[in-house]
Amino acid sequence: MGGNQVRNERTQAALDLYSEQNKGVTIEGQFSEWSDYWNKLATSAAGQSLPDLVQMDYMYIDQYVKNNLLVDLKPYIEKGDLDVSNISENTMASGTVDGGVYAICAGINSPAMMYNKTLLDKNGITIKDYMTIDDFEAVCRQVYEKTGYKTSIVYGTAQTYLDYFMRAYDVVLFGDKKMGGTAESYIPFFQMYETGLKEGWLIDPGVFAEISIGSVEQDPLVNGSSPETMSWCAFANSNQLTAVQNAAPGRCDHWHDYLALS
User: Fold this and answer.
1) DSSP letters for the chain
2) CA atoms of 179 and 235, how far apart (whole Å)
3) Closest C-alpha to 250, from 258, 230, 260
4) pLDDT of res. 69
5) Residue 197 region, left (φ>0) first, then alpha (ψ -120 to 50), else beta?
6) Is 192 left (phi over 0), alpha (psi -120 to 50) or beta?
7) pLDDT, tens digit, 9 for 90 and up, residues 111-134
8) Cα separation, 71 vs 57, whole angstroms
């Protein structure tokens, strides 16, 4: 299983509960950081030694299905061995590939921008609802000027943020099996990083060379020894708020749905 400590503990608790309710069944969990998890899973797949149960992601499920590495659960659902009657069709569709069901969603969340509200309140900075990209960049400048804290914008997992960013320019990232727009359409996205580095409010990429990408405990909102290496915000999923708060008491105490950034 890949993820932060809170996620690992809750996953293990679910496995233990299943073992209690199904005598004779033992599930041994193996946990690692998010980025390391996919490398280990790929190595296991190549060596034909995949675990019986795996946590999967949208980015990889199609690849694993095409390589015949996952079991189609649809026959078990149709026979009634797996009861999914209380799960919506849209949720079930998230684990469906070419008509087969290869994964069952563990939960639904929302893309979110988590931030240090205590720090911002102390410096008279307000995060308003329905910010535009320009509004967000203005806040980044303001935070940097008043506190020295920089901004972290999803280094290493930019494909998710890119999807929402491009909607502001009426470009649908994925559709008809090809990327939307033209090469020129994506210039504003890269200009955002270029502007942030030139103006000083964006965290230097070198910081991320020394941490594990995707690790809650090492995210610049959580980690960092000085404002130069610390961020006032983090882009993540809403259900990671508890994990971030647990890892960094006092540094993260609020979140905003960043779908509003348009």
Assistant:
1) -BS-HHHHHHHHHHHHHHHHHSTT-------B-HHHHHHHHHHHHHTT---SS----HHHHHHHHHTT-S---HHHHHHTSS--TTS-HHHHHTTEETTEE---------EEEEE-HHHHHHTT----SS--HHHHHHHHHHHHHHH--BB---TT-HHHHHHHHHHTTT--SEETTEESS-GGGGHHHHHHHHHHHHHT-BPPGGGGGGS-TT-TTTSTTT--SSGGG-BSEEEEEGGGHHHHHHHSTTT--EEEEGGG--
2) 23
3) 230
4) 94
5) alpha
6) alpha
7) 888 888 888 999 999 998 888 889
8) 15
Structural domains present in the chain: 5-101 (3.40.190.10), 111-260 (3.40.190.10)
Q: What is the pTM of this model?
A: 0.70
List pLDDT tens digits, range 185-234: 999 999 999 999 999 999 998 888 877 666 777 788 887 778 888 899 98
